[in-house]
Amino acid sequence: MAVANAYHINFDCDRDSNWFSASPVGWASWTINVTLFFLGNTLVLFEGSPYYVSPTHMWDIIQKHKISHVFFPASVIDEFQKRGYVPTDKHDISSLRLVLAGGSVVKPASYDFIMKI
C-alpha cells in the first residue's frame, strides 16, 4: 500500500490515470506497477522491442489508449533520441502528463529531448 500511496501523491494519479510501461518483464517495475490497480488505474504493459514495429509505435500506443503516465527505461529514451523516434504532427498525445524514466541514469540530453516532445 505504501507504493500505491507514493504513486498517488508523487505522480499525480487519479482513477482516470492510464499508465504505460515499456520495461522488460523481468524488471521489478512490472511488480511495482501492479499496485496501480489499488488506485483504480489502467495499466498498459508492453513486452518487446520498442524500436521494431515502427518509429512511431510507442507514440501510437500512447495516443490510442490516452496514456497519462508512461515509464520508459532511460536507455529507450536515449535510443529514441538517436533514431529520431518522435511523435508526428498527426499524434495527439495531449493526455500525457508524466514521463517517468529509470533503470539507469537519465542523461541531461534525454531530459531535454522529452521536454521538447
Automatic annotation (TrEMBL):
Keywords: Membrane, Transmembrane, Transmembrane helix. One of its GO terms (molecular function) is acetoacetate-CoA ligase activity. The chain crosses the membrane at residues 27-46. Residues 3-114 form the AMP-dependent synthetase/ligase domain. Gene3D superfamilies: N-terminal domain of ligase-like (3.40.50.12780). Coiled coil: none annotated. PANTHER family: ACETOACETYL-COA SYNTHETASE (PTHR42921). This is Acetoacetyl-CoA synthetase. It comes from Trichonephila clavata. The lineage of its organism: Eukaryota, Metazoa, Ecdysozoa, Arthropoda, Chelicerata. The gene is AACS_24.
